[in-house]
Structure prediction request, 406 residues.
Amino acid sequence: MRTAHKCLVALFGIALLVPQIGAAQQVPTIYLYVNDFVGVLTIDEISTLDEICYELDRYNSDELAIVIVNSTQPLGIDLYASETFEVNGVGKESSDNGVMILVSTEETLWRIEVGYGLEGVLNDAKVGAIGRANLEPYLSQEDYYSGIFYTVSAIVDVLVSDADQHSGNKYPLFGYHIDWWELASAIAVFVVVAALTRGRILFWIGGVLTRGRFGGGSSGGGGARGRF
Amino acid sequence: MPLLIGLIAVVILLVTGAWIIVAYNGLVSSEQKVEAQWAQVENQYQRKIDLIPNLVNVTGQYTQFEKSTLENITNLRTQWLSDLTSEERLNTSLALDGEINAVVFAYYSAENYPTLSSIALVAGLMDELAGTENRIATERTRFNEEVRDYNTKVNKFPSNLVAGMFGFDERDYYNPPL
Prediction:
């Protein structure tokens, strides 16, 4: 009986690993909201930017992703931005309201990718102007935080003032988006496995509680890019 | 004994029939995805021809462009309305690219003394041009991915039998003229 239990726990552990294995791809897996793969932002700076993006998400459900990488080769920044956006699904699935700021430090390129749903608000020229005015002057001095901060502020300005005019997808009362089916099936699986492994599942929980993922939105290639 | 054989034969027939239905529906879904994605590509070409001539006109009020360039662009817009096939539309789009190159060249040539407003305007025009082309490229990439999935289904065994039965043919990838 003990070996059967061990096998079951092992299988469950492997099942938990599968999503991570499946994520082996050319573009990174990004989480809400700031993803600094180079290390140019301090913890406090990341925290501040995260706060702003979280508030925006809560306000009108727009998802603003910030991604800093060393290089976008071999894809090139346009394809890299497009793939990262698609694979990670920035923006809510139903409204495609995602924006992604991508900075490639070695190539000195930036790109702001805009989801389908926000193309009317953040058109290419506007986004290009925001990038040139806010990102380029600071990034060329290697002041990544200021550049990104002012860019995020400008984008949030546009999105919030537009949301004030139209009623966007607001969250239900308690500020969370709950997918009832996912919740119910997760609870059911948990109960079954907990019963079978007699509580040993709790050791695996630590691996499951990872950072939040984006909502599954998509983009058509809109946005602008530049060099700094 | 014959009853058992009869029963097994019926079960095999039912399973085969069910599988044929599933394979057929899979082919239909794939083909519809290809069609829908092609419509997206055409959509982006339409967006380009709707947007770019207007933008060039607006920018042209602030910058010196060759009069003939602006006329050509207007003519291409009219020509687009009578273009029926995808190939004709692609050719019009390529001709428009040629005129846009003339616009960009004129802007950067020595005779132009760009004012502050025209710099911002032309920068915006460049962004929109780049964005338009990027959108077209993105939709074409997705179209090719859908065609790949569909062609794989059409060619793989055993669904190629169903494809042959019901007349599903391979689709061409999008290969723009060089």
Remarks:
- Confidence is low (pLDDT under 50) at residues 18-24, 168-175 of chain A.
- The interface with chain B takes residues 78, 82, 123-125, 127-129, 132, 219-225 of chain A (CB under 8 Å).
